[in-house]
Amino acid sequence: MRILVVEDDPLICEFVVECLRDEGFDVIHAADREQALSWCGRQVADALVTDVQLPGTIDGWETLS
């Protein structure tokens, strides 16, 4: 299973990505919505884990849509 993690805080991101990889998941990280959408334009993720309070005008809730 491939999981896309969208998180701008480096410490939280490192923790979440490491935990998911330890459980055997293929994890891709994006620091913001733009990176996430760029990645999604090239590949498909099975699941999304996103920060709700992302920097910029688009938050994590809007990233889901």
> Are there runs of 5+ residues with pLDDT below 50, and where?
none
Characterize the largest beta sheet: strand count, sense, and whether it forms a barrel: 3 strands, parallel
Run of helices and strands = EHEHEH
**Helical content, roughly?**
40-55%
Domain unit count: 1
Give me the secondary-structure category. alpha/beta
Terminal-residue CA separation: 21 Å
Strand content: 15-25%
Counting DSSP E segments of at least 2 residues, the number of strands comes to 3
Output the CATH class name.
Alpha Beta
Shape summary: flat
Average predicted confidence as pLDDT: 84
Radius of gyration: 11 Å
Description:
This protein has a three-stranded parallel beta sheet with strand order 2-1-3. The chain is 40% helix and 22% strand. It is α/β, with parallel strands linked by helices. The model has no long low-confidence stretch (mean pLDDT 84). The longest helix is centred in the first third of the chain and has 13 residues. Strand 1, helix 1 and strand 2 form a beta-alpha-beta unit. It is flat and about 35 Å long.
